[in-house]
Amino acid sequence: VISTLWLANGIVFYVLLFVTGQWVRLVPLHWDVFPNAVSVAIQYLSLDWPKETGWENYNSLQLLAYFITVFIAAPLALITGLGMSPALSTRFRLISSVFSIQITRTLHFLVLCWFVIFLVVNVSLVIATGALNNLNHMYADRNDQSWIGFGVFAGSLVVLIVAWVAATPLTYRYPRAVRKAGYALIGPAQRLFEHIDSKPGQYKEKDI
């Protein structure tokens, strides 16, 4: 269920990214982005923060980090997630013919490590380089030092915590309802995958 919600959120994000033209902000267009990213990394490591202009554009290191996360890590997480399932990998023969299940698991784990590192570093820098201004960029579509973005962020955090705490006893008390809700989310995708190739999956001798 969580994976389905993650995938649905990603689809919405991609649609909005290209419909609004914001994808241009995340794609390196010049080779000088690489030496510039090294320079920015040195500035961060020396705690001499580079000038933040996130409202207008990202610095080279941010650009590369977002590009890798959105256009490389996220699709790779989906592909390797499908490849880790023996049932699905035998149906999606294009995946299983390129990556064995063990290679797919390793790649999926490395993608997870990237997401964790990206999350920790990103959140830390959001706080360290001007929390109010950065939160306004993300949550209030404003470029100022007001507390509006922080208020929206804090409110959404409270909602998530309350929902998480409330969900735990509900899953124990109403397991059948939770199971039905979960199947309602993943059922259509599951049936779609089952009909992509109606023939049963089969491992070859070299795969075994």
Structure, explained:
The structure is a single chain. By secondary structure, the protein is mostly helical. 74% of the residues lie in helices and 0% in strands. It is built from 9 helices and no strands. It has helices at 2-19, 33-45, 60-84, 86-91, 93-98, 101-128, 131-140, 148-173, 175-196. Helix 2 (33-45) crosses helix 3 and helix 3 runs antiparallel to helix 6. The protein is globular, with a radius of gyration of 21 Å. The model has no long low-confidence stretch (mean pLDDT 84).
Topology:
Layout (H helix, E strand, L loop, with lengths): L1 H18 L13 H13 L14 H25 L1 H6 L1 H6 L2 H28 L2 H10 L7 H26 L1 H22 L12
Give the gist of this structure.
The protein has 208 residues and is an all-alpha fold. It contains nine helices and no strands. 9% of the residues are buried.
In total, the number of strands is 0
Structural class: mainly alpha
Question: DSSP strand (E) fraction?
Answer: under 5%
Global morphology: globular
Mean of all residue-level pLDDT scores: 84
Radius of gyration, whole Å: 21 Å
Number of helices: 9
Helix and strand element order: HHHHHHHHH
Report the end-to-end length measured between terminal Cα atoms.
Answer: 30 Å
Which range best describes the helical content: under 10%, 10-25%, 25-40%, 40-55%, 55-70% or over 70%? over 70%
Main β-sheet, in a few words? Answer: none
- Low-pLDDT sequence parts: none
